UniProtKB/TrEMBL annotation:
Keywords: Secreted, Signal. It is found in: Secreted. This is EMIL2-like protein. Coiled coil: none annotated.
Amino acid sequence: MLKKSVSSAIFLCFLYQIGTGMFTASYPTNLTPSSGTNFIFGVVVVNDGSWYNNTTGEFTAPLSGNYLFTGALCPQRSTSFYFGITLNGVEQTRAEYFESDGHVCHSYTSVLQLNANDKFAIKSVHPYNELFEDHSRWNIFSGVKR
Ligand SMILES: *[C@@H]1O[C@H](CO)[C@@H](O)[C@H](O)[C@H]1NC(C)=O
Ligand SMILES: *[C@@H]1O[C@H](CO)[C@@H](O)[C@H](O)[C@H]1NC(C)=O
């Protein structure tokens, strides 16, 4: 029992130092990312341990485990909009959002098993992708470890 609480305390100190990896970032720095480049969310709302890098748009897993990534993307009206979810640069899934009637935000979710130091990002995979952002439509990227 004592042994268990000592090891839990050591683990908690360790987590305190490296952070949990939980992050939320908003406001893309470039609303028209060219094909093959990451969406970069510049404004960091939460970044426990600073594992989300707001100049590359990549999240690096601090620990191996199960992670949930979610958020919203708001494409420009009537613009083809394709993106991929990448793990270490390799697409895990791809989607297209297209709305002809307005600027509609769509949520996305991805659950992945990551090893420590794996990198997760959202990548533009279309040359004319364009996001829309205003006071009521926010593009968001978040992640948390289970
Ligand atoms: C990245 O986040 C830091 C810390 O929150 C902030 O000072 C900086 O301006 C951000 N960079 C960009 C490109 O938005
Ligand atoms: C983000 O990544 C870039 C490129 O790898 C690196 O130069 C920079 O130091 C990183 N920023 C932080 C806050 O770790």
